[in-house]
């Protein structure tokens, strides 16, 4: 598929269906994302955690977790660069469209494969390790399904359009649509002409963001900055005898 070809789309024109998908749904998802985090922090502050399962199994976690987290970080940075930064800015910085396109496709594909691979290992670990599986809730399972669908669709869209196909410049359609949401001037016609895989990827991402505040994914929006300023934790033994050697005569502990 070339950039000038007419792609298969979910909505041929930006009618009522296009307005619902590319105007109403983004604002609903954004509102739930923001208000949901406020609600979660206010009423479930102690549940704002990943519920780590490292104590149950470490071997697979040491492989899958870094692979997934580093991969998704690169994917996130790529999305920020591609959706937020206009094409005119990169061209003004001396980066040609061809250079940007090749770099984005290569790095995006590698990062996408790493993310999918890491996620597959984490899902396999959670399914096959008994204690980890027992600690997995229905909410976790739904989150993993939604996250997997979004990532796989994004990777499939990149490969189908820019590796197997003749190329698709999403910075001419999807990126302006994304920015128009925050300008409060959404243009659904821009998304209505995008290939179906890009549309499905965008829709799955909107649904994922709407569910985000109510899953363990909330930990991605926090950083342990409090560790830098909190006081030291002092541990005291309850044993009468302290240390490995007996105290010298005259220096025995008298109790408290």
TrEMBL record:
Oxidoreductase listed as a keyword: yes
Keyword Oxidoreductase (UniProt): yes
Alphabetical keyword list: Oxidoreductase
Enzyme Commission designation: 1.7.5.1, 1.7.99.-
Listed name of the protein: Nitrate reductase gamma subunit
Organism: Streptomyces albogriseolus
């Amino acid at each position: 598929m070339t950039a000038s070809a007419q792609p298969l789309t979910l909505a041929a024109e930006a009618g009522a269906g296009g307005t619902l998908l590319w105007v109403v749904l983004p604002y609903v998802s954004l509102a739930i994302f923001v208000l949901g985090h406020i609600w979660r922090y206010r009423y479930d502050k102690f549940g704002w955690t990943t519920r780590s399962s490292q104590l149950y199994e470490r071997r697979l976690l040491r492989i899958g977790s870094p692979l997934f987290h580093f991969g998704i970080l690169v994917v996130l940075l790529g999305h920020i660069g591609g959706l937020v930064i206009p094409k005119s800015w990169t061209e003004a910085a001396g980066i040609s469209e061809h250079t940007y396109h090749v770099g984005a496709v290569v790095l995006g594909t590698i990062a996408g494969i790493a993310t999918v691979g890491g996620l597959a290992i984490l899902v396999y670990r959670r399914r096959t390790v008994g204690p980890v599986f027992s600690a997995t809730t229905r909410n976790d399972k739904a989150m993993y399904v939604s996250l997997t669908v979004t990532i796989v669709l994004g990777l499939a869209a990149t490969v189908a359009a820019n590796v197997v196909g003749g190329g698709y410049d999403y910075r001419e359609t999807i990126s302006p649509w994304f920015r128009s949401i925050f300008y409060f001037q959404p243009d659904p016609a821009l998304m209505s002409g995008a290939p179906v895989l890009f549309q499905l990827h965008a829709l799955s991402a909107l649904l994922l963001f709407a569910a985000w505040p109510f899953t363990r994914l909330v930990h991605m929006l926090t950083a342990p900055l409090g560790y830098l300023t909190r006081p030291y934790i002092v541990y005291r033994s309850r044993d009468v005898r302290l240390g490995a050697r007996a105290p010298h005569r005259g220096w025995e502990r008298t109790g408290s």
